[in-house]
Amino acid sequence: MTSSVITGTGTYITSIQKTNAEFSNHQFLNEDGSDFPSTNDVIIEKFKSITGIEERRYAKNEYNASDLGYFAAQKAIKDANINPEELDYIILAHNFGDVKSNAIQSDILPSLATRVKYKLGIENPNCVAYDILFGCPGWVEGVIQAQAFIKAGIAKKCLVIGAETLSRVVDQNDRDSMIYSDGAGACVVEAKEGSESGIISHASQTFTKEEAFYLFFGKSYNKSHDKDVRYIKMHGRKIYEFALNNVPNAMKIALDKSGITIDEVKKVFIHQANEKMDEAIIKRFFRLYKKPIPEGIMPMSIHKLGNSSVATVPTLLDLVLKGKIENQKVEKGDVIMLASVGSGMSINAIVYRY
Question: Domain Beta-ketoacyl-[acyl-carrier-protein] synthase III N-terminal spans what residues (predicted)?
């Protein structure tokens, strides 16, 4: 039996640290352009208490999302100890393409996956490179697609990357700008015969009846800014409620497909969007099985790295596998879950035996 096994992981954590204190002098505005009655210190403290974010990372001006993806890909390839010329697919998840520093235009021609393949120096034309737009769950969905190629017998080695520079598409007058960060994570998924490790099951969903535009591009809250320039915007309360009502159910679908019991799940690597939201999702997930939440089940990186969209899950996975998050580890044979939610509105989950 052929299994789809993650044989290498890598991440690129950008070097510029931006703490919450550095937002003290920002002019935060309401959607109608009016001032907040609260001081920035109060706004920032409330933000931290809800999201858990203390600081986030921004990319250097000279690097774009494809550069970050390339750096993470190099590490994953090295970790997997493979020849990049043997890759059948390069799947790169992002949402905004390459946005140059101080620019307002996204560049996705050629695709970011093509750019990474070029930077890696891969000459093999049979290595197919393409991008995936699936909101924050894009990297997880890329891993699901890699497994599909492997199960179909048309691929043996796939490189899946998530890369984003969200700091370049935020409205500085919007409090939500404090959530977003830059970064990249990657993994190599390989076909392995007779392996006990690998992807066991998965689930993916997209909700659009009412939810399609919970995340969208909109004008700056500062009415003096160019009205034709758009920034990432979100209906935060609606997203929070949507995630709590739907992500646990999708995770349950994936776990029930696997035939594995909830008691066997050792770790849940969930999209790092909001600490309180993630905690509530995990609580509801275990409540579906009438089980208490095991201690240490949910590693977190959001406190120092913020929300880097498609990069959060692969980054978190790599940090734990490399022993870089205190009191968190994954051992051979452990069952773990990868889960995410984001614009679309889309949700996915993977059950994986390490």
Answer: 130-203
Task: Enumerate residues 6+ apart whose C-beta is below 8 A from 350.
Answer: 140, 143, 144, 199, 201, 202, 254, 337, 338, 339
Tokens of 320: 């734990």
Assigned fold of 199-353 = Peroxisomal Thiolase; Chain A, domain 1 (3.40.47)
Domain 2-195 has CATH 3.40.47.10: yes
In the chain, CATH 3.40.47.10 sits at 2-195, 199-353
Which residues lie closer than 8 Å to 323 by C-beta, 6 or more apart? 329
pTM of the predicted model, to two decimals? 0.96
